[in-house]
Amino acid sequence: MNAKTGREFYGISAKEAPERSTVSEKASMAAAEAPTRLSRVIRALEHPAVKIAVPVIIGILAVFVLHKLASHVRWVDVKADIAAAQPAVLLAALACTALSFVGIAAYDFLAMRAVAPGRMPARVSMIAGAAGYAISGLLGVSYLTGTAVRYRVYSAFGLDLVKITAIVAISWSGFVSALVLGFGALLALHPAGLSAVINVPPALETSLGLVLLAGFGGYLLWLASGKRQVKSGEYSVDLPGAAQAAGLTLAGILDVSGAALTLYVLMPPDLVPNIAVFATVFIAAVGLGILSHAPGGLGAFEATIIAGFGASGRSDVLASLLLYRLIYTVLPFAVSAFGLAIAAALANRGRLQVTSSVLWRSLKPVVPILASALAMLAGIVLLVSGNLPAEGSRLDILRDVVPLGVIEASHLAGSLAGALLVVVAAGLYRKLYRAWLFAMALIGVGFVASLAKGLDWVEAVSMAATLVTLGLLRPAFYRAEGVSLFRLDRRWILSILVLAAAILWIGFFAYDHVEYRNALWWQFSWNGDASRFLRASLVMAIVLVVVVVNSLINHRPAVRQTREIPDVVKRLVAQSEDTEANIALTGDKQFLVSDDETAFIAYADTGTSLIANGDPVGDRKAGEALIWTLRERAYRAGKRVAFYAVSPDYLPTYLDLGLSILKIGEVARVDLRGFTLEGSIRKDLRQARNRAGRDGFVFEVVPRAELDPILPDLRAISDAWLARKQGEEKGFSLGAFTEDYMRNFDVAVLRDPEGRIVAFANLFQGANRHELSLDLMRYLPDAPHFAMDALFAEMMLWGAAAGFRWASLGAAPFAGVQNRKLAPLWNRIGGFIYEHGEHFYRFEGLRAYKEKFDPVWSPNYLACPGGLAAPRILYEVNVLVSGGLRGLMK
Question: pTM of the full predicted structure?
Answer without folding.
Answer: 0.55
